[in-house]
Structures are given as structure tokens and as C-alpha cells.
Amino acid sequence: MVFELVPVRRSTGRARRRDTVLIGATGALVLIGMGVVSIATTGRLDPSAPHVVRQTAALALGAGIAGALAAVDHRRSALLAPVLYAAALVLLGLVLVVGSPVNGARAWLHLGPVQFQPSELAKVAVLMLLALLTQERREPALTPRGIAAVVAVAAAPMGLILLQPDFGTFLVFGALTVALLLIAGAAVRHLLVLAVIAVVATGLAWQLDLVEDYQVERLAVFLDADAGDPQGTAYNTIQAQIAVGAGGLFGRGLLAGEQTALGYVPEHHTDFIFTVIAEETGFAGAVVLLGLYALVVWRGLRIAAAAPDMLGTLLAAGGVAVIAIQVFVAVGMTVGLVPVIGLPLPLVSYGGTSLVASLAMIGLMLSVHRAAR
Prior knowledge:
Helices cover 67% and strands 3% of the residues. 47% of the residues are buried. It contains 14 helices and 3 strands.
């Protein structure tokens, strides 16, 4: 198992009950996000800016949920997974009927002044239920029938998310499912069968026009940069790379990013927030940011390795997988490593639901850490 490669040092006393490195890295990322959101939306550091105020409210909610999860044994929290999963499916179905379309995807629900994205909340519910189901189906081994049950649980929300369509979140759910199956010891041949099924399903989705034209065009631009219109489908990619390249080693300086100030990079407070960081703080600032994410991943893997049971291992490692794949995609699409599919940078991008979901996963990691004593 991969976690056998992660060294675990046992500690004693109160320090063992909380992971200060994980908490500190998470807090630093959130604070960086608040500052960058303010710069991206107002051109200055203003804690009273509307976007910052809303993000602060989400932070308060997310921190409360994370604290509650951290204080409760993860085995008890996991018992809520079926209820949370059912609620997530209802919300995902509801958003297809009465949801608000944003950037080509019907992914948002409005409840009065509150707007939230059910697919973000579904990440936590699916993580908890898949972890619970996988560890139950693992004895004495993860059989093909057990794998099928896990995949079926993941497939329901994935199908609803694909109908929005939100391919980025769809990808996250798929990566989470594969990661949990690998950790639980699924045979490689079974995963290869799943890969073939996924390819066939992708082709079927294409034939049924479940893949939007703009998504096909973005993939074409990724495969051939000259295939897109610089003022159309290739615009996001080109402007993002200009912003990242303009930052150089140490950046243009805070509040001095021209791409940000002039609004050349679309969604620079959400999916493309990394461009603001790279342009204004340069390679050095990007390294610091990615270093903080590396700390979160490292501590999460250590917690998974030291977990008192397989459920704890799956919860912690699954949370790491969700955060890591989002970081890879959110950063990768700004530098041309992956197609533009639209994913927020966890803990940093503007978006209350995303922040709450990410903090909830951190809370689950802390709960597993607390139980390992």
C-alpha cells in the first residue's frame, strides 16, 4: 500500500490530538485566498469588499463544520453518509430543474440571497459514503461485486453532474472513486475494465450530445494551440499563460498585475485565480502557494497512514485526492498542462460552497488524526 511509504512518527499528549501543521497550512491558504479575491475583484486589499465579506461568511460556516467534524469520531460521522448522499442526489436533481445557469452550466441553486453549488456539497457526501461502503466491501477482499457497488454509488451523482454539464467536477468524482478503490486494494485488471467502460461511456456521451460544443473546442485548443480563435475558444488559455509568464521570478508586485487590473483573464477570482498569484508574486509566490498545498497533502497522507482503521485511511486519503486533483487541474489549465474545464483552486478561489466543502474534508482528516491515539 502506498501509505507504507509515508513515515509515521507517533507523538503523545495534546499535540497528538490536533495537527498544527495541517491547520496552519489550511489557514494560510484561506488567508491568501481572501487577499487575492479582494485584489481580483476590487483592485485593492479591502476586507469590506462584497466578495470578501461573502467569503468570510462561508469561512465561518466551513470552520464551524470542520471543527465539529474534527471533534467527533470519524466512525460516527460516517454514519450520516447515507443521509447526506440522498440529500446530495435530491439537490443535484433539483438544480437541473430550477438551477441558475452560469457560464454554460446549470450548477447553482438560489435560496433567497444565498447561492450555492450542490455538486461541491456532494463531494463530501460521496467521499464519506464511498469510504464507508469500500471498507465494508473489503472483507475479506474487494470483489468485482464490491467494486460494482462502489462504482454505482459514484455513478449516480456523476451522471447528474454531467447533465449540468460540469466536466471538471465530474472528473474529480471519477478520480476520487479510482483513488479509494486503489487504496482499498482493488485488482488492477478490474480497474482496467472500469477504464474501458469509462472510454465507452465518454463516446456515448459524445454521441448523445451530452458534451457541449465549447467543451469540444476547448479540448481541440489543448491538443493544438493554433486550432482555436485567439478571441474565442483559445482566449482563456492565451491570456492565462500571458499572465503567468509576465510574473517572472518575483512578480510585478501586489496590485501591479496588468492582466488582472485590465480584466484580460476571465474568472480570475475563481477558476483562474492562480494567474493573479503568478503575475503579481511570480514564480516565488507560486512556489510558496504550491508548498502550502504540499503540506496539506503530506499531512493528509500521514494521517491516512496512521489511521486506526481502514475507514479513517479512506476518508483522509480521499480528501487528499479531491484537493490534489483540483489543485493540479486549476493550476495546470493556466499553464496549458490540461484543457480548460473549470475547477476552483481549493481553499483559495472565491466560492463559498467550495470553501465549505474543502474545510469539511480537512475536518474529516483532523477527526481521523484525533482518533489515532
